[in-house]
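User: I'll paste a sequence; please echo it back and then give the predicted structure.

Assistant: Echoing your sequence first, then the prediction.
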Amino acid sequence: MARPVSDTEARPEPASRATPDVAVRLEAVHKRFGEVAAVDGLTLDVLQGEFFSMLGPSGSGKTTCLRMIAGFELPTEGRVLLLGRDVTHLAPYERDVNTVFQDYALFPHMTVGMNVEYGLRVKGVPAAERRGRVAEALGMVRLEGYERRKPSQLSGGQRQRVALARALINQPSVLLLDEPLGALDLKLRQQMQIELKAIQQRVGLTFIYVTHDQEEALTMSDRLAVMNAGRIEQVGSPAEVYEQPATTFVAGFVGVSNMLSGEAARAATGSTSPVTVRPEKIRMLGPDEEPGPQECTLAGHVRDVVYLGAHTRYAVDLDLGGELVVVQQNLARSSMDALEIRGQPVRLAWDRQHSRSIAETAKEESGPSGPGEEEV
């Protein structure tokens, strides 16, 4: 039996408070599965034409958010708006969105062309128009001439692009991508990151991309939301999220970050809050080298050295307690030079502007996208 439509739902929706360039708005959205809050009061705007990523570990709520935008899940509370229209209770086929999944979901008995045109065939689009649009969609993903092949005759990257073409051919307002590169090996995944971003820029659609891989999110996104336990910890550009983490969770999850506290933080920066600094921002001072006037310094002993070809990673036990990881490019240092420093005393220095004082309760105090940090 169809769900009854209330008088409120039957009336046209008023214009959203979201600005006209907002493609998707999640408005105070909650999603509970029994006693578990998968999404906990989340509000988010995704702008038209941007590549937006939802980044977080397993269980952070990112896929649940995507499924609510797609219509596969209904919010327990809150609203989902698409181009200003409330679509919260609409079925997936009634929303102007398409989804690309990790397993591609291609029909193995159909050719590439038949897979790509499937949605148009269901809609009753005439054959001549279907052929033209299939050719156009395959051209977008650089698979011209592959119409007669079967999915089993394609590489993983090619199958992923067929799934993308099948989604693009319906000309959705928003394309949802649920970890679509997860089944690919590392090299192919890195190639497809660049390819996906290039396709998104060519077609000009809004892409919402779900991933647990911070490198993917940093590589492709115009903006990203870092999620944890059903809430947003921070929203910003890749550079903002990496260089200015708002919370200790963001600092630890996006890239590698050192966390200083207690006496070491006070001595280096004068801060009484936890301080984060990225490993590549730190340098080792030479025997007769003095730090600059704007540099923070700490002393310690090198506990471990890992030579990684292009760079070397050092673990330094600090004299005031705690440790710092330091990453330095191997510009003029050989592997033997790097290894010889193990066990030696060192002085570390970094520019004060690269120290971030992070309030551990920033999420509660400032909201999901508040500043939550300051330079020290």
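The longest strand covers residues 295-307. The chain has two domains: 15-246, 256-365.
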